[in-house]
Amino acid sequence: MDCTVLTWIYGTINADLQQSTMLKNPNARVAWLHLEDEFLDQRESRALLLSAKFRTAKQGSSSITDFCRRLETMAATLRDFDDLVGDRTLVLTLLRSLSSKFRPMVTNIKLRQPFPTFAEARTLLLLEEIDLNDVAANTDLPPAPAPPALVANSSGSAAPSSHGAPGHGSSSGGGQGNSGGN
After folding, report:
1. What is the DSSP letter of 92?
2. Average pLDDT score, the chain
3. How far apart, in whole angstroms, are the C-alpha atoms of residue 129 and residue 152?
4. Is residue 110 part of a domain?
5. For 7-10, which contacts have Cβ atoms below 8 Å and span 24 or more sequence positions?
6. Residue 94: exposed, middle, or buried by beta-carbon count in 10 A (0-12, 13-18, 19+)?
7. Which of 53, 20, 15, 24 is nearest to 38 (CA)?
8. Do 121 and 77 reside in the same domain of the chain?
9. Is the peptide bond prior to 166 cis by the omega test (within 30 degrees of 0)?
10. 72 by DSSP, 3-state: which?
């Protein structure tokens, strides 16, 4: 019976844990206690590590949807460790962690009365992300080529401007330069 339980334990853990457990040359009870120590004794340190990751998270290049999902997952895992993350803390962590392109929106959300819930803040940021993406899509286009008349005027303007710029056609050279550019 002990061999069956030990085989089941080995079959349900990853290779690293399996190796550290096998080094003890255990029976099923010793293997179970070893695994219990591995998980329960490190519970506090894992909770502290996750809490630090949560509080120092940064959006980086993630979308608002992905970043909010990541924060919610960390908050839910912290709840499993009995470290409750309130909605206000979740919103403040979200706002503090956003990339710089959302700075104006962060100020607007912080000033809202009453203070928004996480779901409300996420919705406002999603709408802002759509607007920012539209602006970025429209400004990423290559500049339109200059009209031919402007190119001709700018390339030929050095000589005619010294003769005809003040009088606009007072001399024959300036008049020819202007008519040639049209």
Report:
1. H
2. 79
3. 42
4. yes
5. 9/35
6. buried
7. 20
8. yes
9. no
10. helix
